[in-house]
């Protein structure tokens, strides 16, 4: 009987090359026996031993080509284990296209990718939402690489002994999962580089298969670069097929996966040893690369789900029509129940219940599927139709395999690509223009534009506690909440009472008491207008944007409720609940302590807090309750002024040839350990008595919080110490709590910015200086302990400022703990070094500017000049201008690299060549050169000094020059005679020099805004003349 006759008898749906090989082996092995048999006997014998007829004949494998629509309509992947394989030819480059394609399909359990071309730096940018990523990357050469995405609901782990790369042989990644019966499933993705030695590959592949063993379900997929339809090097190809069958691995794909006008080859495949189940295989029409994606569904093989993943998500219908309907419903309310309430809690609860009821009625929640999200909003309906036509042309090319069909498809595709690019450019231009004042939104846009995977934060599938894995989302949420709620309390309990009682600091009692004045509707409207349109939702599912849209219809009942609160001295209980979102910090993602809480407070509580803070600040300012050295959260003060305070003292000491020792104190979770009893006692002395005291006490006590984790809400936990994170009142309470710190030491000076505490002292004798500071630090430590503030001695550092040499100096200690001495430190965002040269800070700025420059370079092809200039102002200008008046007067040899980078950025913004002159570009873009930014920042600061809009300590550093003759203009400051560069390059000297040279017109500007406008006009006029 001929081979062809035999093939026609075979019912197994495996590819013909494989069957040829199997038949050849059969004939060789039984040749001598067959010669003695009749034709009929020979036929019966071959049927008896043929594996195609007796084993593989009942293997139900179906393999076809599918469009996306056909796949979603005809393929059921819910009742089995589903696997899809892509040859990506750079996963980083094609990630967004692959992700979008996957979203158009039903959700696969396993996604295998070959030719990922990844390195360790790009791993974070190719994460798929809801999947755990495992990769094997090449170490030295580019290209290659394999990856497996496993659904996070599946218990999976990497198999290290089968995950490696062998240069010019193969690359492999293997992951173990469990099926529903706790049987292990091993899934491998393999890539064989083309043109490599087949014998070596077969040898290593055999080792991989032998290591897998026989008692597991095995799935091996990948790009093998071995054509199973048109085999070349027949012996080695057959050896590969032999090896796969020898390990009970059967190929599922039997149609070409790479089709060109010259050839149609089967290079990508999926093999499995699960031959007792129905298997559905197929290929999907997709032109992301020249390899078609292949998939397989193993029916009745289910992966073991460790928890149920919520399919889709609930969102609010908050269209303009819904909001208008909600506004009309609120407008029709009489609120009689609120006005009839006898206490503030009852009134607020009634208001909140009615508000939420109408909100749910007019803006209901609906469940949507993840894949319905419009990932590419610049794709219009017209472009969608064009994409369908392009896909139809691609399918026609695959069928016909003619040059004409290929050219038609490619020409149409190229035109479509240009249209999509232009549409994308216009879309992002409008989007960036819309969000140019909101940096967080701008970064999200840039991350999308540069294909950086900046998805909503994904949590790991399990957490670890005492080496036990916790996978239930509710249990994880409760553990996180317990940690967040008790971290401050536990830390406070660890603080021991000082052995020596610190002498009681007498806070001078304020004989005046704070009065809570009535709230008006106009005041509430004005305050709500100042809030940003944030979309973060509180525990009532309300955001500030919604309140701003409806405030005019609820302002009257809110006015009544807030006035009741101030009259009764009660902060409503339902305003004390915080919704906590866990945010990963660093380290192991499975450890609870590596997360920090983001607290979302009631939106209505923010309005009430702002009303109280306004009255509180007026009272504090009227009676000058805060210490002069505190710069945090105070009107007219900033970080730059706190830095100036310290820099002036250091530079003046260097000028006098003295040492200055600065101790930069680190307080551990200071806002969380604050003791309520101590705070309330101090507030009473400062004048917060009666109703104001009761209101503050009510604000602090009986607070609780819950953690929102993976759509699960934890149980409520009480919060017994600290001030509420994210609150408006919390920082004010904290600076009042530590207000008397500056009086603890009679010797040390201090600069405070909220909890950032810096202590310093100057002197001629360094040894005596260190000895005195050590004694004083012991007293400071006692004060911190007494007030339940945790001083972190390991992170507290000190610097010895000055030019003088020092050798064999003593150590600085706090209670026998030696403090680390450094030569530079970051203080309020600016890096100080021991000589005040500003070189470390300039180096830091250069590194940040270089990275921002790289982002501009990445997006310049997608954005026009106007949009690029917005990004330049958003990403680079803040680094250039932050505290610029302090460090910008350093030597030009230090700052010149900054100006060079700025010019590079300006060229990118203008789409100019790398060597084009920037003289005309700066005035064209209305961009200010770096050195002019220095002068502008300095001029603004000196204008504030002239108008006496700076703290008294800063103002005292400048003296108006009294001149009987008006030869050189008015409003001149006295110049200082200086010896050292530290003082010469400071704003106190350079600012005076610059100010004295300004015209009287600029000096007499009506306001800071007027000063800036006039200065810029003169500056751009100068640019045009250059």
UniProtKB/TrEMBL annotation:
Coiled coil: 395-422
Pfam families: Exo_endo_phos, RVT_1
Domain Reverse transcriptase as annotated: residue spans: 564-832
SUPFAM superfamilies hit by this protein: DNA/RNA polymerases (SSF56672), DNase I-like (SSF56219)
Gene3D superfamilies: Endonuclease/exonuclease/phosphatase
Keywords for this protein: Coiled coil
Key word Secreted present: no
Annotated InterPro entries: DNA/RNA_pol_sf, Endo/exonu/phosph_ase_sf, Endo/exonuclease/phosphatase, RT_dom
Domain of life assignment: Eukaryota
A single MF term (Gene Ontology): catalytic activity
Protein name from the UniProt record: Reverse transcriptase domain-containing protein
Native source organism of the sequence: Oryzias latipes
């Amino acid at each position: 009987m001929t081979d062809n006759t035999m093939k026609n008898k075979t019912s197994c749906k495996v590819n013909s090359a494989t069957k040829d090989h199997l038949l050849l082996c059969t004939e060789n092995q039984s040749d001598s026996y067959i010669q003695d048999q009749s034709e009929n006997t020979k036929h019966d014998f071959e049927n008896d031993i043929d594996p195609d007829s007796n084993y593989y004949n009942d293997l139900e494998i179906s393999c076809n080509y599918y469009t996306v629509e056909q796949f979603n309509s005809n393929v059921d992947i819910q009742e089995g284990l589903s696997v899809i394989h892509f040859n990506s030819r750079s996963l980083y480059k094609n990630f967004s296209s692959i992700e979008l394609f996957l979203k158009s399909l039903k959700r696969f359990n396993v996604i295998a990718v070959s030719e990922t071309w990844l390195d360790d730096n790009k791993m974070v940018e190719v994460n798929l939402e809801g999947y755990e990523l495992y990769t094997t990357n090449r170490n030295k050469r580019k290209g290659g690489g394999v990856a497996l995405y496993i659904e996070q609901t599946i218990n999976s782990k990497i198999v290290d002994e089968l995950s490696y790369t062998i240069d010019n042989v193969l690359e492999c990644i293997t992951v173990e999962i469990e099926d529903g019966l706790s049987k292990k499933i091993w899934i491998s993705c393999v890539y064989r580089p083309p043109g490599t030695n087949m014998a070596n590959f077969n040898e290593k592949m055999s080792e991989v298969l032998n290591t897998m063993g026989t008692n597991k379900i095995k799935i091996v997929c990948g790009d093998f670069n071995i054509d199973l339809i048109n085999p070349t090097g027949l012996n080695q190809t057959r050896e590969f097929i032999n090896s796969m069958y020898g390990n009970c691995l059967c190929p599922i794909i039997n149609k070409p996966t790479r089709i060109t006008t010259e050839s149609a080859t089967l290079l990508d495949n999926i093999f499995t040893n699960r031959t007792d189940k129905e298997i559905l295989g197929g290929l999907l029409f997709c032109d992301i690369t020249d390899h078609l994606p292949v998939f397989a569904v193993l029916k009745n093989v289910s992966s073991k789900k460790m928890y149920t993943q919520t399919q889709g998500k609930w969102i609010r219908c908050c269209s303009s029509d819904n909001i208008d309907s909600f506004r009309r419903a609120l407008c029709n309310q009489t609120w009689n129940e609120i006005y009839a309430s006898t206490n503030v809690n009852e009134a607020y609860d009634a208001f909140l219940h009615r508000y939420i009821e109408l909100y749910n009625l007019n803006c209901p929640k609906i469940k949507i599927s993840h894949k319905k999200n419009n990932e590419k909003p610049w794709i219009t309906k017209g472009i969608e139709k064009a994409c369908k036509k392009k896909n139809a042309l691609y399918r026609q090319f695959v069928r016909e395999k003619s040059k004409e069909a290929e050219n038609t498809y490619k020409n149409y595709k190229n035109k479509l690509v240009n249209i999509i690019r232009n549409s994308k450019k216009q879309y992002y231009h409008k989007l960036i223009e819309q969000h140019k004042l909101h940096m967080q939104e701008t970064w999200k846009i840039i991350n999308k534009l540069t294909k950086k995977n900046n998805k909503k934060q994904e949590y790991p599938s399990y957490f670890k506690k005492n080496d036990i894995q916790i996978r239930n989302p509710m249990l994880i949420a409760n553990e996180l909440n317990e940690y967040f709620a008790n971290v401050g309390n536990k830390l406070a309990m660890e603080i021991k009472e000082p052995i020596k009682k610190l002498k009681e600091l007498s806070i001078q009692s304020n004989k005046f008491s704070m009065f809570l004045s009535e709230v008006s509707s106009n005041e509430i409207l004005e305050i709500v207008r100042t809030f940003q349109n944030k979309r973060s939702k509180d525990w009532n599912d309300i955001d500030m944007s919604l309140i701003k849209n409806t405030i005019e219809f609820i302002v009257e009942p809110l006015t009544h409720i807030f006035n009741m609160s101030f009259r009764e001295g009660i902060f409503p209980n339902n305003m004390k609940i915080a919704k906590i979102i866990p945010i990963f910090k660093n380290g192991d993602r499975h450890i609870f302590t590596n997360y920090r809480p983001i607290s979302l407070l009631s939106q209505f509580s923010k309005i009430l807090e702002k009303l109280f803070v306004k009255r509180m600040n007026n009272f504090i300012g009227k009676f000058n309750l805060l210490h002069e050295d505190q710069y945090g959260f105070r009107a007219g003060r900033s970080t730059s002024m706190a830095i100036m305070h310290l820099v002036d003292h250091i530079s003046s000491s260097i000028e006098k040839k003295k040492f200055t020792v600065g101790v930069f104190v680190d307080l551990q979770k200071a806002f969380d350990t604050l003791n309520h009893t101590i705070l309330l006692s101090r507030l009473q002395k400062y004048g917060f008595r009666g109703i104001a005291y009761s209101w503050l006490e009510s604000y602090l006590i009986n607070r609780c919080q819950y953690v929102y984790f993976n759509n699960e809400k934890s149980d409520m936990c009480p919060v017994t110490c600290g001030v509420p994170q994210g609150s408006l009142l919390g920082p004010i309470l904290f600076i009042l709590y530590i207000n008397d710190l500056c009086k603890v030491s009679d010797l040390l000076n201090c600069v405070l910015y909220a909890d950032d505490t810096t202590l310093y002292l100057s002197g001629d004798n360094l040894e005596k200086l260190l000895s005195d500071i050590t004694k004083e630090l012991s007293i400071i430590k006692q004060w911190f302990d007494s007030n339940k503030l945790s001083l972190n001695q390991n992170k507290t550092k000190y610097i010895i400022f000055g030019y003088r040499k020092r050798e064999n100096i003593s150590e600085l200690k706090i209670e026998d703990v030696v403090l680390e001495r450094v030569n530079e430190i970051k203080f309020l965002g600016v890096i100080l070094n021991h000589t005040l040269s500003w070189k470390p800070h300039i180096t830091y700025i250069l590194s940040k500017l270089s990275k921002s420059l790289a982002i501009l370079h990445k997006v310049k092809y997608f954005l026009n000049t106007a949009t690029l200039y917005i990004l330049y102002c958003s990403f680079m200008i803040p680094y250039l201008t932050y505290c610029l008046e302090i460090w910008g007067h350093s030597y030009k040899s230090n700052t010149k690299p900054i100006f060079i980078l700025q010019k590079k950025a300006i060229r990118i913004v203008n789409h100019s060549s790398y060597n084009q002159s920037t003289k005309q570009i700066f005035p064209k873009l209305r961009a200010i050169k770096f050195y002019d930014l220095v002068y502008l920042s300095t001029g603004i600061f000196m204008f504030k000094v002239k108008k006496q809009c700076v703290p008294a300590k800063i103002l005292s550093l400048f003296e108006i020059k009294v001149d009987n003759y008006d030869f050189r203009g008015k409003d001149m400051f006295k110049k200082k005679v200086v010896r050292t560069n530290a003082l010469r390059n400071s704003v106190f000297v350079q600012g005076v020099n610059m100010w004295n040279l300004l015209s009287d017109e600029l000096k007499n500007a009506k306001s800071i805004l007027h000063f800036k406008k006039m200065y810029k006009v003169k500056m751009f006029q100068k640019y045009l003349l250059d």
